[in-house]
Structures are given as structure tokens and as C-alpha cells.
Design a protein that fits this description.
Shape: globular
Distance between the termini: 19 Å
Largest sheet: 7 strands, mixed
Number of domains: 2
Protein name: Zinc-type alcohol dehydrogenase-like protein
Keywords: Metal-binding, NADP, Oxidoreductase, Zinc
CATH superfamily of the largest domain: Medium-chain alcohol dehydrogenases, catalytic domain
Strand content: 25-35%
CATH architecture of the largest domain: Alpha-Beta Complex
GO molecular function: oxidoreductase activity; zinc ion binding
Family: Belongs to the zinc-containing alcohol dehydrogenase family. Quinone oxidoreductase subfamily.
Radius of gyration: 20 Å
């Protein structure tokens, strides 16, 4: 007889990660796909800063366990009646939607329009490290900053990636190099600088020091593009000074402080936000672009052009290991991605 319940990791209270109830093992109802939803059997998951933000302490209690988690690799178990892109047995990877139940569960419902076919050359753990960071990097570079994604199509153009050793930065370096940009990544520790150079960055500078003198030491007066993946307000003045006239800045990090946009006026600089969940949250008309992007990325992975950024694996998928993964991210010293695999 088929079970109607499934294992998951969830929360009732928003607590510090060292509290044993910050994430707990739960048994919840197994969902049924309708419309364009896929029911995916979860094989591996990855943890991102958004998981930490959503789980962070706040004065609220859930009546039912809240399941979070926005990076999944798995196998299609069932399809909704309106699905046209996938069939049962397909191996997939995706980042899910912020306004639906997350993927830290044995089975997960997701709209097929934001799902891609898993890269054939990767196992599930390696694939689970990619979706959220890759979509963010791709959309930030090619949709928001308007950089051409054609291989080698940006000779002589420069990009500064702030926080280049993290999950998004690790993919952004590889995509920017593929597109022909000269990449300057920021890092502050020897191990993170080594990671950034290993992914293909041409230069590494320190984000705790002024950018312009470091760029000048490299023979650069300014940069054409800036992709900010860390503390927008902290780097704002530095970015305004380093960006070239008519350059473009994209950030993925919200700010609690007001930003002085006037600093960008004389250079006619464009500033734009990137939020990977916009398409799925609002079910935009171009939502299916994420399906296409993940498939294109899978091709780049299988050709050896982009590599996965797993730096730590934990198993099985349970509350104890997820609490460990969250603590690793909260330490602020994480390089690459942490992945969990196998429900037991």
C-alpha cells in the first residue's frame, strides 16, 4: 500500500540555529500534483542564504510545520494533467518558489516551467548545488546587466564580482568568463581568493579595501559592470567610484539603508536588482525562461564549460544535518555550496 505521508524537515518556531527546535524532523502529508505541477522524489538538496534569512529568529509561530529549502535535484514521480515538458522517471533540478512549500522533504511539488533536466554528467548532489545560484548569476549577468551571453562576445569588457567566492559568485565567474569578460573577483581570505582564481577569475581584490586603488594597480581605471553579491550599502560608495561612465551595477542583496542614487547620476550609471524568485512568485509571462536557462546550463555543464560548486556534502537529509548546514552559512566563511543527500 502506498504511503500517504512523507519525511520532511520543518519548523514551528523561528529560532537561533543552535536551538534543537530551529529545524526538526517531521512527518507530513504527501502532496498530489495538479495543473502544471510535477511531484518530484527529492534525492539531494542544497542550502542558500535565503534559507537562513527565512528561518532566522522572528516573533511568529506556525500552526503546521513550515518546510523551507530552495535547491532540489530529484526524479519526477508524477505529473499534473497539464504538464507537457516532463514525464515520470525524468531526472530534474530546480530552485522552486519562495511562496510555496520548500524542497526539504521526500517529495515536492513544483511548476514544470521553472524546472530543468538534470545535467547528465552530474550526480544528484552535484546537481542540487546549481539551480538557485546559477539562475541568479545568469539572470543578473545576461538579463539585468544586459551582457551578451554568446561565447567570447565581450572582448575588452570588464566585470567586478563582489563576494565572488560564494555560491552565486562561483557560477557568475564561470559564466562571465565564458561570455568573454575580464573578471575581477573580490575575496578577503587566502582560501577564498584561491577558490576564485581556480574558477577562472583574472584578478582578485579585497572587498575590505577601497576598490579604485586596487583596480589601478591592475592597470584598470574603472569597470564596465559590477555584480554585487554582498552588502549593497557597505559597498555602495566603492561601486559608484569604480563603475565606468554609462556602466551598469546589479545587486542581489537588499539593504536596510537608503542608497544615494545621486552618486550614479553624472556617470549615467544603471542600477538594477536581481531576485531569482520574481518569475515564480508572480508567475510572470516569461516564467518558462527558467526552464530554458536550466536546460542551457545543463548543456554547459555536460560540455565541461561550467562546473558544480559543491564544497561540502552531508548525509542523510535530516534536521541535525540541516542545522549544521545553516550554521556553516551563518559563519560567513562558506566557500562554494553545501549539499545534503538521501532521506533515510
Amino acid at each position: 500500500m502506498t504511503s500517504t505521508t512523507m519525511k520532511a524537515v520543518g519548523l514551528y518556531k523561528y529560532l537561533p540555529i543552535d536551538h534543537p527546535e530551529s529545524l526538526i524532523d517531521v512527518e507530513i502529508e504527501k502532496p498530489t500534483p495538479t495543473g502544471r505541477d510535477l511531484l518530484v522524489r527529492v534525492k539531494a538538496i542544497s542550502v542558500n542564504p535565503v534559507d537562513v534569512k527565512v528561518r532566522a529568529p522572528k516573533d511568529r509561530t506556525e500552526t503546521k510545520p513550515r518546510v523551507i529549502g530552495w535547491d532540489v535535484a530529484g526524479v519526477v514521480e508524477e505529473t499534473g494533467p497539464d504538464c507537457t515538458l516532463f514525464k515520470p522517471g525524468d531526472e530534474v533540478y530546480y530552485a522552486g518558489s519562495l511562496v510555496r512549500a520548500g524542497g526539504n522533504s521526500e517529495f515536492h511539488l513544483v511548476d514544470e516551467r521553472i524546472v530543468g533536466f538534470k545535467p547528465a554528467t552530474l550526480d544528484f548532489a552535484q546537481a542540487a548545488a546549481l539551480p538557485l545560484t546559477s539562475l541568479t548569476a545568469w539572470e543578473g549577468l545576461f538579463d539585468r546587466l544586459g551582457i551578451s551571453s554568446e561565447p567570447g562576445s565581450n572582448p575588452g569588457r570588464t566585470i567586478l564580482i563582489i563576494g565572488a567566492a560564494g555560491g552565486v559568485g562561483s557560477i557568475a565567474i564561470q559564466l562571465a568568463k565564458y561570455a568573454g569578460l575580464t573578471v575581477i573577483g573580490t575575496a578577503s581570505r587566502p582560501e577564498s581568493a584561491e577558490w576564485v582564481k581556480g574558477l577562472g577569475a583574472d584578478h582578485v581584490i579585497n572587498h575590505f579595501e577601497d576598490f579604485v586603488p586596487q583596480l589601478k594597480a591592475l592597470g584598470l581605471e574603472s569597470v564596465d559592470y559590477i555584480f554585487c553579491l554582498n552588502s549593497t550599502e557597505k559597498h555602495w560608495r566603492n561601486m559608484a567610484e569604480a563603475i565606468a561612465p554609462q556602466g551598469k551595477i546589479c545587486s542581489i542583496v537588499e539593504t536596510d539603508e537608503l542608497l544615494d542614487l545621486t552618486l550614479l547620476k553624472n556617470k549615467s550609471v544603471t542600477f538594477v536588482w536581481e531576485f531569482m524568485f520574481t518569475r515564480s512568485m508572480y508567475e510572470t509571462a516569461d516564467m518558462i525562461e527558467q526552464h530554458k536557462l536550466l536546460n542551457e546550463l545543463a548543456g554547459l555543464v555536460d560540455q565541461g564549460i561550467v562546473r558544480t560548486t559543491v564544497n561540502e556534502k552531508l548525509e542523510p537529509i535530516n534536521a541535525e544535518n540541516l542545522r549544521k548546514a545553516h550554521a556553516m552559512l551563518e559563519s560567513g566563511s562558506m566557500v562554494g555550496k553545501v549539499v545534503l543527500e538521501h532521506f533515510r
